[in-house]
Amino acid sequence: MHTVSLPEERSDQTAHHRTENHREPSLWEALFSKENLLAALKRVEANRGAPGSDGMTTEELRPWIARNWPKVWAELDAGTYKPDPVRRVTIPKPNGGERMLGVPGVLDRLIQQAIAQILGPVFDPHFSGASFGFRPGRSAHQAVRVGRRAIQDGNRWAVDLDLDKFFDRVNHDALMARVARRVKDRKVLKLVRRYLEAGVMAEGVVVASEEGTPQGSPLSPLLSNIMLDDLDRELFKRGHRFVRYADDVMIFVGSKRAAERTLASVTGFIEKTLKLKVNKEKSKACPVWWTSLLGFGYYLAKGQVKIRVDQKAIKRMKVTVRRYTSRTWGVSMDHRLDKLNRFAVGWVAYFSLADSHRAFEGIDQWTRRRLRQAQMVQWKTYERKRHMLRKLGYDPDRAVERGEFVISRKRYWRQSRSHSVSIAMDGAYWASTGYKSFKDSWSRSRFRTT
Q1: How big, in percent rounded to 5, are the helix, strand and coil portions of the chain?
Q2: Listed ranges 7-21, 130-144, 365-379, 407-421; the one with the highest mean pLDDT
Q3: Going by C-beta distance under 8 Å and a sequence separation of 6 or more, which residues neighbour residue 8?
Q4: What DSSP element (H or E) covers 296?
């Protein structure tokens, strides 16, 4: 384990002077205190993540700091430190298109994490109660429950706002003006500004950043909440029921006319006052049953508003399940099930908020069919398939007579639905192999939370 040499808050003389005068440390001193930096270092190491533009990994960060921190600290304290440009990467969106992420270098991730740890307590107590994203003690589930309460109170129309490329369009001057409302330390403000203007490295070329905050940096969630706090205040002033999770905003109103009017007026406020852009194609005013919030939808049952898993979330989930159950993936069934179970446990933990078990039953049926297909591919030969079916207690000859069991490689998916194969490898069979049912996991999660 490398020992990290981090700066003390000030020299012994300054520390003694502070003790005598009972002066609180400045924001800059708190930011670069040994305690705050070590907490940030542990957080960056735990989060791991890909290297930035300099290629340094999180494993290399601690020994690098042990050798180089005095020089970095001297530049920081003198105001001459220049962050490296973030590495631009693109990831596919589930509904098509690409999302651009910025990957800062690990040293800059450390410093940004340290900034976020200090500025968070400065801003968070003043944020809106309807803001749930990236805040301590708040979650997506809370936001969805607040939405359900608003709908139960009679607000059956939704204004679903989509901020177009929010993280790429934030105006630096507008954002820094809002940061400066509560941060008066000029050195801290200058450092935050330098991170906004650090630039982007794309295909080896550094491009200047004139607007935006890189999505994926430790500081961007806090900055997004600071920027959109004015929107929260405006919506409260207008008396709206709403929830916001980062740049996902949903407003609940009582009629179609009110929804259309709210969409138009709030769009104007966002574009004129906040200097952001609303995606008019994706933003909409519609009945609450037609839209989704953070992967969940709502439905009405016996006069009560219930929560369901949105179909788009199921579609995204199936992309991952297809990968783990692909018949062309040449791994053992045990390895396949281990990967699938790890994913399923996390997915169900999030969507356990849903009230209905039907979606989870359907997912299980579909997943088990894909597993049956993969299993038959692994059995390979006709003789092996006959042997395994007999071992499971079913006569393959009778299955063939009914036209259910076909050898053709192109018909594995069709075979996986046949009566004999479905019974031979039913839910009990897959449970015995270690497969963790989506529905059973949902039931256990619901039991624990009730």
Answers
A1: 55, 15, 30
A2: 130-144
A3: 15, 34
A4: strand 296-301
Q: Using DSSP bridges, classify how beta strands 86-92 and 200-202 pair: parallel, antiparallel or unpaired.
A: parallel
- Both tokens of 364, joined, read 């299980």
Q: Tell me the pLDDT tens digit for each residue of 191-225.
A: 999 998 875 544 444 444 555 566 678 998 999 99
Six token digits for residue 110: 């450390």
SS3 450: coil
φ, ψ of residue 283 to 5 degrees: the values are: -75, 145
Single-letter amino acid, residue 435: Y
- pLDDT value of position 203: 45
List the strands of the sheet with 86-92, edge to edge.
98-103, 86-92, 200-202, 205-207
Helical residues (DSSP H) of 198-310, grouped into ranges? 220-237, 256-272
Collapsed DSSP state (helix, strand, coil) of residue 152: helix
Amino acid 427 reads: G
Cα dihedral 256→261→263→269 (10° resolution)? -160
Question: Is the pTM of the predicted complex or chain greater than 0.70?
Answer: yes
Task: Provide the 10 A C-beta neighbour count for residue 79.
Answer: 11
pLDDT digits (tens, 9 = 90+) for 278-320: 999 999 999 999 999 999 999 999 999 999 999 999 999 999 9
pLDDT digits (tens, 9 = 90+) for 23-61: 678 999 999 999 999 999 999 999 988 888 888 999 999
Per the structure block, which two tokens stand in for 284?
């909409």
**Do the Cβ atoms of 269 and 228 come closer than 8 Å?**
no
The two tokens of residue 172 are 């630096």
Tokens of 68: 């180089």
C-beta separation of 315 from 304 below 8 A: no
Angle CA(391)–CA(369)–CA(381) in degrees, nearest 5? 45
CA distance 133 to 248: 9
CA distance 266 to 69: 47
